[in-house]
Amino acid sequence: AIVLGKFLTLQLQKPLRINDDVVEYWIVKAISSKILDCKVDQLNQLVIVSRHTARVFGMPQWQSLRSKLGVWRGNIANAINTIQANKVTEDGGQGMQGLMIR
C-alpha cells in the first residue's frame, strides 16, 4: 500500500481546530466523504493516509489536470493508431487467405 503520510492524532488537532476527543469522529467523516483513504492506529494514536482529495481546486490543480489529460489523450491516440494498423494488417491478411482458399 502507498503511504502518503503518517500523522499523530495530536498533530491534527491544531490545524483542524478541534479537541482530541473528536479527532477520530472527523477522520471517520473524512473517510465517509471520500476525502481520505487512511487507516487509524488507535493504540499508537496514528493516522496513516494512503490517498486524499483536495478541497481546493486552484490553478496548480488545473495545470496538473491539463497535463494528465494530455498524456491520456496521447495514449488513446497511440492505442487507436495501433488498433487501426492491426486491423489493416488483419483485413489484408484475411483477404489474401480468402483468395487462396477459393
TrEMBL record:
- The domain of life for this entry's organism is Eukaryota
Q: Which residue numbers delimit the eIF3 subunit M C-terminal helix domain?
A: 55-83
- Please give one Pfam family short name: PCI
Gene Ontology annotations for the cellular component aspect, listed alphabetically: eukaryotic translation initiation factor 3 complex
Question: In Gene Ontology terms, what is a biological process of this protein?
Answer: cytoplasmic translational initiation
Q: Could you tell me which residue ranges the PCI domain spans?
A: 12-51
The Swiss-Prot or TrEMBL record describes its family as follows: Belongs to the CSN7/EIF3M family. CSN7 subfamily.
Q: What is this protein called?
A: PCI domain-containing protein
Q: What is the lineage of its organism?
A: Eukaryota, Viridiplantae, Streptophyta, Embryophyta, Tracheophyta
